[in-house]
Amino acid sequence: MTNTITIPTSIEWHHDHLLILNQQKLPKVTEYIQLRKIDDFYEAILSLKVRGAPAIGITAAYGLALSAQHYSVNKWEDFLQQFKNDKELLASSRPTAVNLFWALERLEKKIDQCISINEAKTLLLHEAVQIHTEDEETCRQIGEYGLEILTPGASVLTICNAGSIATAKYGTALAPFHLAQEKEQYYKVYACETRPVLQGARLTMWELQQSGVDVTLITDSMAAHTISKKEINAIIVGADRIASNGDTANKIGTLSLAIIANHYGIPFYVAAPSTTFDLAINSGGEIPIEERPIEEVIAIEGVNIAPENSEVFNPAFDVTPSSLITAIITEKGIIYPDFNQNIREILAG
Ligand code: MRU
């Protein structure tokens, strides 16, 4: 049976601008903003108005393609120079999610095939739309594989927001729960609030409530206790970059969850599209970890919770060693250890 449910999305292409859901303001305000100039795109990614690895990649692709439509140059070298400048600007927005770099490279490869500026402009936009469309299908497939691995009726814990609004639609770690709603299956989700900027409390709670998923909020420090009470059957998280040995960078706090899962003997799953793998690196130590402004830690939504002169360390991501990961759920299949061998095999199709 299929249930009609509301799965929120955050990115809409409108031929001369990109409309995005401003994730900075959720859940208090549901605001959509238009991105038109390259600086709008850069700022939206930097300030987390749009966030989540696949959504960052999609937005950057539209930003680069849309900006190129406005280059008023006649020479191919001038076109390439402006394209390179825009690409570098977007690439400097956030360092960890490899989907950003993957999308920018994919657009650059496209113009390598072009013989005129007009052709390049057309193909760039086409490619951005393609990246967006493909991601929706990819996430649906991840959701289907997720449902194969998660026992119906299970209680599952997650962190951050690896959901529909972090992708084209459905999400990665949250995709199984949206699909389960469509299929009238039942799961119970626990969402860690995800300090410092509360993607779990603000975004995952909002998103799952939209599609009717049974979701309970806990603070990050409650995870071990909640699991020790045996209320949780599995943990599922998203990813920002996965090295070729399976080491996975995801939102800060993910590593603690993996260690807790290991201690209590419950499965720890990573859900991510093939675009989140970085096969050019051997292990997680090579993944650049973004450090964000100290204000995110000193204050919550503008209200100080620590003295303003406090010393602060604010890494946005951590790396979970592959030894703590039970399986990685991708659109191409479920990858089990030995990750070094199986990642390459499954991604190769
Ligand atoms: O800083 P954010 O909110 O962009 O971090 C997002 C995450 O860590 C997500 O888990 C990851 O990008 C996967 S989104 C499908």
Task: Give an overview of the whole structure.
It is a single chain. The chain is 40% helix and 16% strand. It is an alpha/beta fold. The chain has two domains: 11-136, translation initiation factor eif-2b, domain 1 (Four Helix Bundle (Hemerythrin (Met), subunit A)); 151-348, 3-Layer(aba) Sandwich (Rossmann fold), CATH 3.40.50. It has a seven-stranded mixed beta sheet, sandwiched between helices. A four-stranded mixed beta sheet has the order 11-8-9-14, covered by helices on one side. It starts with 10 loop residues before the first strand and ends with a helix. The model has no long low-confidence stretch (mean pLDDT 97). 5-S-methyl-1-O-phosphono-5-thio-D-ribulose binds next to α2 and β9. The active site is at 240 (proton donor). Its EC number is 5.3.1.23. Keywords: Amino-acid biosynthesis, Isomerase, Methionine biosynthesis. This is Methylthioribose-1-phosphate isomerase.
